[in-house]
Amino acid sequence: MITVIGRGHSGTRAMSHTLSASGVFMGATLNESGDLIPPGDMYEACRVMARHVTYLGNLRWDFDALHTMPIDPAFTRLIESFLASVLASDAERKGWKIPETTLVFPWIVRMFPDIRYIYWVRDPRDCILGAHVTDDLSDFGVPYDRTEDVRLRRATSWEYQVELVKATPKPKHWMEVRFEDFVLDQDRTLARLERYLGFPLARIPVRPEAVGRWKTDAGTHMFDFFMADLLEHKYENERRGSGRGAAVSEGQRPAGD
Fold first, then answer.
1. What's the pLDDT score for residue 237?
2. Which residue from 38, 188, 191, 206 lies 20 to 30 Å from 147 (Cα-Cα)?
3. 145 burial via Cβ count (<10 Å: 0-12, 13-18, 19+)
C-alpha cells in the first residue's frame, strides 16, 4: 500500500494521477486532484489528533505526546472509515492521497508502519500562492496565533506541516520527491520512484510554468521561516529586503497544482 503526503498545493495530484495511470487503486471515488473522497472522516480525524498538540508560541509546537500515547480509538475508526474502499480492495497495488494525511502523519505512521510513503515537497513560495482548505489550521483543531493576513496564515499552515513531518520518526519505507524535479525531469524522477516502489510508472503530461510562479507574484510570498527549507531542498533564495514578510526577487504543473 502507498500513500502520498504533502501540504495542499504541493503538487501531490501529480503523484496520485501517476499512480492511478500505473494501475494502482487509489480508492473508490476520487476528485479531480486525485484525492480520495468524501473527506469528512479524515477531517474529523485531524481534529481528534490535534487535541494532543501543544502550541508553544512563535510558530513552535510540541508533538512529543503523539509518538508515545495510545492512539485515540475514535481516530482509528475515522481513518478506517475514510479508507474503507482502499482497505477492502483486493488490488495487488493500492493506496490513497489527500493532503490532510499530512496533518495526521504521526498516527498514520503508527497505524500503517509497513506501507510505502512518498513525501511530496514544493518550493513554499509557490505552495502558498493559492487557497487551500488547510490554510486556517484552526479549522482542523490546530492551535496557532491566528492572523487575518492570508499569506501569513497559509505560510503558518505550511510551517506547521513541515515541522510535524520533521518531528515524526520516519517509517522504514520513505522517499522524498520534489515537485519541481518531477516536472522538469520526469523520467529521472520516475526512475527513482520505480526503484522505490518496485513497478513501472506511467508518464503524465506536465506544465513547466507551474515551477517558479512566485517570481511573477506581486504579493508577499517569502517568510523568514522558509529559509531553512529553501536551503535544505536546494531552492534558490535571492531576496529583496528582509524580515518575515520580505518578498523574493528570484527563485509544471501536472493538471493544475
1. 58
2. 38
3. exposed
Distance spanning both ends of the chain, measured CA to CA: 24
Contact between residue 7 and residue 103 where contact means Cβ atoms under 8 Å apart: no
Q: Is residue 54 classed as helix, strand or coil in its secondary structure?
A: strand
pLDDT at residue 245 greater than cutoff 80: no
Give the cell for residue 70: 495510545
Of the candidates 105, 121, 103, the one whose C-alpha atom is nearest the C-alpha of residue 157 is: 103
Print the SS3 string covering 135-185. CCHHHHCCCCCCCCCHHHHHHHHHHHHHHHHHHCCCCCCEEEEEHHHHHHC
Q: What residue ranges define each of the domains in the chain, with the CATH number in brackets?
A: 2-206 (3.40.50.300)
Query: Are the C-beta atoms of 34 and 98 separated by less than 8 Å?
Result: no
Instruction: State how far Cα 101 lies from the chain centre.
Output: 7
Alpha helix locations (H) across the chain? 12-21, 40-50, 73-82, 84-88, 105-111, 124-127, 150-167, 179-184, 186-197, 227-232
HSE-CB of 198 using CA atoms within 13 angstroms: 7
C-alpha cell at 126: 509557490
Over the stretch 150-204, which tens digit does the pLDDT of each residue have? 999 999 999 999 999 999 999 999 999 999 999 999 999 999 999 999 999 999 9
CA angle, corner 116, sides to 68 and 35, nearest 5? 95
Please state which of the ranges 58-72, 157-171, 228-242 shows the lowest mean pLDDT: 228-242
